[in-house]
């Protein structure tokens, strides 16, 4: 049953019940009037009609719910009881007035067929009343033309009203039908839009949930990076401290290198002087060949020079030991410096090897000087025994000159290497300065980065909280939209079921 039919059925039901109430009240009123006027036949008629009317209403209207049948049955029964009253009980002018009431009663349902049936029965009753004998027959016949004319005009007027009402009702129902169809179309379009909106909200909710998860991971990552930056900052600070210590060590090493360079230069000058002294000694030994006295004097001088040279070799030995110790310390510091000290470690190894070479050479010089001392002692002892020893002394002095030349060459080489070591130490010192500055700058940058990461983590946390609130709101909106969509579907199904 569609909604139009439902509306018609509801309208028919309400009108039939209104007809029942109206006619029942009129019957009860007529029944009471008949009792007061002591018209037993009419009272029984009205009472029987009322009882039958109630039975028909409960059976047809309430039980069978045939509202339209009840309307037809009630009109026909009303007129039939009227005909019965005219034929068998009494015929008076009052019955003509009742026919106008029944005509109006037939129009209450606003159905043309029902009204025409009632109008036909009314005219039929007017005709029966005109021809039936009655105490008021004269009045009936005198009023018949007027009454029948008024009845017909009233019927025409009521039929016109029914016709207009039917047209208006049809237009109204058509408008309702069109409105319902439009509402159904709009409801379908609205439901599609609502479904699309719910899907979009669900997609947005899914994206926000994904972003929320990604932000949580990003927050964890930023926190880990921040912790790593703090650790790196501490490590860089430690590296900067080691670089500062290395810088101080390199400055000290540079100072020691300068001192060693100066001492090496002094040793070279001393060796050069020793070479000159040996050359002079050689000349003097040549002169000693001519004279023993001059040889004794020269030998004495030579003995002094040899003793002085022994002192020099001791100084050189100490210098080489200090150089070796410094080279060992430099290797240790280079190992601590790591990659930055690898080049310096190579230089330290070269210095250590030079120190070892110098030490070996000094040992040789010591041994040679020891031999020279022994030779000088033997020559001094045997100087009185044989002048031929002077020649051996001359040869020994020549050997000493050769050794002094080698020593001078070695010391000059050491001086050059000490110069290179000094330049390298200064270069490493400069690099250590740069490393210290870079480490400090890097530590400051890492501290700033850590602070920025902490701010970023706080911002991400705020965004995460905001997205969490939005996600919760979207979840609520999505749930409400889903409930609304289910309700819309349910209402649409009910509406469609009613229309079907």
UniProtKB/TrEMBL annotation:
Membrane-spanning segments: 18-36, 42-62, 69-87, 113-132, 144-163
Gene Ontology terms for molecular function: transmembrane signaling receptor activity
Membrane among keywords: yes
GO cellular component: membrane
KW Cell wall biogenesis/degradation (keyword) present: no
Any Pfam family the entry gives: MCPsignal
InterPro entries, per database record: Chemotax_Me-accpt_rcpt, MCPsignal_dom
Coiled-coil ranges per UniProt: 173-200, 250-298, 446-494
Domain Methyl-accepting transducer residues, every copy: 207-457
One BP term from GO: chemotaxis
Keywords assigned: Coiled coil, Membrane, Transducer, Transmembrane, Transmembrane helix
PANTHER family xref list: LYSOZYME-LIKE PROTEIN-RELATED (PTHR32089:SF112), METHYL-ACCEPTING CHEMOTAXIS PROTEIN MCPB (PTHR32089)
Family: Belongs to the methyl-accepting chemotaxis (MCP) protein family.
Descriptive protein name: Methyl-accepting transducer domain-containing protein
Organism: Weizmannia acidilactici
């Amino acid at each position: 049953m569609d909604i139009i039919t439902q509306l018609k059925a509801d309208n028919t039901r309400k009108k039939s019940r209104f007809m029942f109430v109206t006619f029942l009240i009129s019957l009860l009123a007529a029944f009471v009037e008949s009792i007061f006027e002591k018209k037993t036949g009419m009272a029984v008629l009205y009472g029987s009609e009322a009882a039958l009317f109630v039975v028909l209403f409960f059976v047809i209207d309430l039980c069978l719910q045939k509202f339209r049948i009840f309307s037809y049955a009630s009109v026909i029964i009303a007129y039939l009881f009227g005909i019965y009253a005219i034929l068998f009980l009494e015929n008076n002018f009052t019955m003509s007035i009742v026919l106008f009431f029944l005509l109006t009663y037939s129009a209450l349902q606003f159905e043309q067929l029902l009204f025409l049936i009632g109008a036909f029965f009314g005219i039929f009753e007017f005709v029966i009343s005109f021809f039936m004998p009655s105490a008021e027959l004269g009045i009936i016949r005198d009023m018949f033309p007027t009454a029948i004319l008024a009845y017909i005009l009233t019927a025409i007027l009521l039929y016109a009203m029914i016709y207009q009402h039917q047209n208006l009702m049809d237009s109204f129902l058509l408008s309702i039908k069109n409105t319902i169809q439009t509402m159904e179309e709009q409801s379908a379009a609205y439901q599609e839009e609502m479904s699309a909106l719910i899907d979009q909200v669900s997609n947005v909710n899914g994206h926000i949930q994904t972003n929320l998860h990604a932000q949580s991971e990003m927050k964890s990552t930023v926190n880990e990076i921040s912790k790593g930056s703090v650790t790196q900052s501490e490590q860089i600070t430690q590296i900067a401290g080691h670089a500062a210590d290395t810088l101080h060590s390199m400055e000290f090493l540079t100072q020691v290198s300068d001192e060693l360079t100066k001492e090496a230069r002094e040793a070279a000058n001393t060796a050069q002087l020793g070479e000159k002294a040996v050359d002079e000694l050689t000349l003097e030994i040549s002169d000693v060949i001519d004279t023993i006295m001059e040889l004794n004097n020269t030998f004495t001088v030579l003995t002094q020079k040899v003793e002085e040279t022994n002192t020099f070799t001791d100084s050189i030995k100490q210098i080489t030991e200090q150089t070796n110790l410094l080279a060992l310390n430099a290797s240790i510091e280079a190992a601590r410096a790591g990659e930055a000290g690898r080049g310096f470690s190579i230089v330290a190894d070269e210095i250590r090897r030079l120190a070892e070479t110098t030490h070996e050479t000094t040992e040789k010089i010591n041994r040679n000087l020891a031999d020279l001392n022994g030779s000088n002692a033997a020559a001094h002892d045997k100087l009185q025994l044989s002048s031929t020893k002077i020649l051996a002394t001359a040869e020994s002095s020549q050997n000493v000159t050769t050794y002094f030349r080698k020593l001078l060459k070695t010391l000059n080489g050491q001086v050059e290497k000490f110069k290179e070591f000094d330049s390298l130490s200064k270069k490493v010192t400069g690099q250590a300065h740069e490393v210290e500055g870079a480490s400090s700058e890097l530590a400051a940058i890492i501290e700033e980065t850590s602070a920025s990461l902490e701010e970023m983590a706080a911002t991400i946390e705020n965004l995460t909280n905001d997205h969490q609130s939005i996600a919760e709101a979207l979840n609520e909106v999505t749930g409400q939209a889903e409930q609304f969509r289910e309700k819309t579907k349910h209402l649409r199904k009910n509406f469609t079921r009613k229309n079907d």
